[in-house]
Design goal:
The complex is a heterodimer of chains A (about 110) and B (about 120). Chain A is mainly β. Chain A is built from no helices and 11 strands. Chain A is about 0% helix and about 50% strand. Chain B contains no helices and 11 strands. Classes of the chains: A mainly beta (about 110), B mainly beta (about 120). The interface between A and B is medium-sized, with 25 and 23 residues.
Chain lengths: ~110, ~120
């Protein structure tokens, strides 16, 4: 199974400042169809996960443009350009290229400093 | 608006069984693959099972293979998870999640809590 490793595990950020979360996969995530099925999910406190980013850099419907994704191969990044209070929560990367199973990173907890 | 509403969770003894349901609305259910994903208390996300739109293709995580059975009824816009031989480490919030060709997992329900304890 593909192992997804996120860093940092905890991320204290000042309001209005940028935040960066990294995700590394144990093998490359380019699918035979040419797409890279690497996505990001946000889970606010007490809520269900919500899709943020799919295929590395595509924002899901309704996701603010302060969220952006990048990367290739085995290294991927989620960036928040200016953190707002509503961004507090846990962020998970997930790979859907080499499945089953889909595998998630262990999560990064973003908090306001 | 897509809504996925899970039900059927509860407290069950080790070795017992439980059947989870997920009712979908706001999407053409019969066109979507579906998944179950679980989250143990205070832990991360673990994919459990997948079923294609027509039920032709089904996958399970190794941790539940042989014990859990996923199914769906497109006429009722419903997804199910039959869980047998439950263990303490199956204790988790179980989410129903729609499939997506582009992101693999799209929309999530609010979850139903399964607690396995004597």
């Amino acid at each position: 199974d593909v192992v997804m490793t996120q860093s940092p595990i905890s991320l204290p950020v000042t309001l209005g400042q940028p935040a960066t979360i990294s995700c590394r996969s144990s093998q490359g995530l380019v699918h035979s169809d040419g797409n890279t099925y690497l996505g990001w999910f946000q889970q606010r406190p007490g809520q269900s996960p919500r899709r943020l980013i799919y295929q590395i850099s595509n924002r899901a419907s309704g996701v603010p443009d302060r969220f952006s994704g990048s990367g290739s191969g085995t290294d991927f990044t989620l960036k928040i350009s200016r953190v707002e209070a509503e961004d507090v929560g846990v962020y998970y990367c997930m790979q859907g290229t080499h499945w089953p199973p889909y595998t998630f990173g262990q999560g990064t907890k973003l908090e306001i400093k | 608006e897509v809504q996925l509403v899970e039900s059927g969770g509860g407290l069950v003894q080790p070795g017992g069984s439980l059947r989870l349901s997920c009712e979908a609305s706001g999407l053409t259910f019969s066109s979507f693959s579906m998944n179950w994903v679980r989250q143990a208390p205070g832990k991360g996300l673990e994919w459990v099972s997948y079923i294609s739109s027509s039920s032709n293709t089904i996958y399970y995580a190794d941790s539940v293979k042989g014990r859990f059975t996923i199914s769906r009824d497109n006429a009722k816009n419903s997804l199910y998870l039959q869980m047998n031989s439950l263990r303490a480490d199956d204790t988790a919030l179980y989410y129903c999640a729609s499939g997506s060709g582009s992101s693999r997992i799209g929309f999530w329900g609010q979850g139903t809590l399964v607690t396995v304890s004597s």
